[in-house]
Design a protein that fits this description.
Number of domains: 1
Strand order of the largest sheet: 7-8-9-10-11-14-12
Structural class: mainly beta
Helix content: 10-25%
CATH architecture: 4-Layer Sandwich
Radius of gyration: 16 Å
CATH class: Alpha Beta
CATH topology: Metallo-beta-lactamase, Chain A
Number of helices: 3
CATH superfamily: Ribonuclease Z/Hydroxyacylglutathione hydrolase-like
Number of strands: 14
């Protein structure tokens, strides 16, 4: 299973000859990221804001095989006031090849409840927002990681000097809480079962 970070909260998951893209952003919606030029069999969006629902920027292609992806969603909120400020948010649980469980938290803006934690616990990959302001921040993200014990944690929705919204915190505001952090020099990651509770920071290719 190959995971490519396309910027912001957008990822492409590829396995065999099939692929899925989640939370594509509209053209020009997030500073520093190139316009998307991707193809996929499935496109998912956590909510309808432009920086997470640019489905028209991805070319959908049909697969002649049975889908490698099974998708479950959990309802959540984009803020700490049950959606009153920014609306609802979908958490996606993506099962790949009936084995790998990949969880994408979208623009989660509140702590997970106990039922959600139980459904996510022990997943192979957790994609989690860490920048704060519009979503949970580094401290809440740390608690969620501790409660769910994923094999791999991929932070998203943060800023750097080159990209992201100015009001967001950096990835280092999150990774400072952990000892097992791997900073890759590529935007692509091949999952390995040998990893255990590792933070993987992907490098957006400017």
């Amino acid at each position: 299973m190959l995971i490519k970070w396309l910027g912001h909260s957008c990822f492409k998951i590829s396995v065999d000859s099939q692929s899925l893209i989640i939370d594509p952003f509209e053209k020009g919606s997030v500073k520093g990221f190139r316009d998307l030029d991707e193809k996929a069999n499935i496109v998912l969006c956590s909510h309808l804001h432009g920086d997470h629902c640019g489905s028209s920027c991805v070319e959908l292609i049909e697969s002649k095989y049975d889908s490698a992806f099974k998708i479950e969603t959990l309802d959540s909120f984009h803020d700490e006031k049950q959606g009153a400020l920014r609306g609802e948010n979908l958490i996606h649980i993506i099962t790949v090849l009936d084995y790998y469980k990949v969880v994408h938290l979208g623009d989660l803006g509140c702590m997970l409840d106990e039922d959600q934690i139980e459904k996510i616990k022990g997943c192979h990959v957790l994609m989690i927002p860490v920048g704060g302001y519009y979503t949970i921040g580094p401290e809440t993200a740390k608690i969620i990681v501790e409660k769910t014990s994923p094999k791999v944690i991929i932070p998203m929705h943060y800023r750097s000097d080159d990209f992201g919204y100015d009001v967001l915190k950096t990835v280092y505001d999150f990774t400072k809480y952990f000892e097992k952090v791997i900073y890759l020099t590529t935007d692509t990651f091949q999952f390995s079962d040998e990893l255990d509770n590792e933070i993987i920071v992907l490098d957006y290719q400017i």
